[in-house]
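May I ask for whichever protein you like with its backbone structure tokens?
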Amino acid sequence: MAEPDTVAGLTAALRDGAYLADRGLATALLVGLRLHRPVLLEGEVGVGKTEVAKTLATVLGRRLIRLQCYEGIDTAQALYEWDYARQLLRIRALQDHQAESGEVVEQLFGPEFLVERPLLAAVRAGAGAVLLVDEIDRADDEFEAFLLELLSDFQVTVPEIGTIVAPSPPLVVLTSNRTRELHDALKRRCLYHWLGYPGADREVEIVLVREPGVEESLARQVVAAVRRLRELDLAKPPGVAETIDWARMLRFLGERTLDERSAGDTLGAVVKDRDDLDVVREHLAELASGG
């Protein structure tokens, strides 16, 4: 499809992909797309930060390249590494043919042995990709600093080969759950958007778009119950993803209403912490009544 050039066009395209974006989010993404600016999405867990990158890749017909961040991730895991096992086999083969040492080295550090990781893959794919740098707040400060050059110039350097520049920048979406504060240098390079919980009517609409088979009355019951859960003192309050999962599970089980029994049977879709379960079970009747 032709890439949208208006906020309304991008909003409609995302909706066609079963993702409902508010005007602020669609505006940030459109500007990021057109002006080649990375977009940093922060917000509560499960509100759709990762999902919007996946949906964008689908509706734009681009390749989704995902870098899942975690504590201890390093550049080799994110950028590239050499295929040492294949290099060793090549060394043995060349030795059998008594090749010159210079020839051996030249052959060992060519594209054939370069294993690309997400960042190198995104640079090579350029505008044909959506690069999702997921949960950047889980990575160390050093890795966050390493990303700065990539986000500014969309290029990487492999010492044995040289600098590889993206033919045209990919759309970059970074997500953060705010487990730690990100550095200002990273934020300055990005457009920023906070993704919070939607209003009740909006959340019902999201459930109905993502799970068309769910009756609206059930969706409203589920959303009301989830919003009540978010008011409780839970270690892991449910996000929109859990709301959709709960409605999906109830529909799968053939439940048409959320009563105390069905709520108790399906809590695993929406409560993911042992202590939280004890708290929620004390409020089952209240949740089922919509109170």
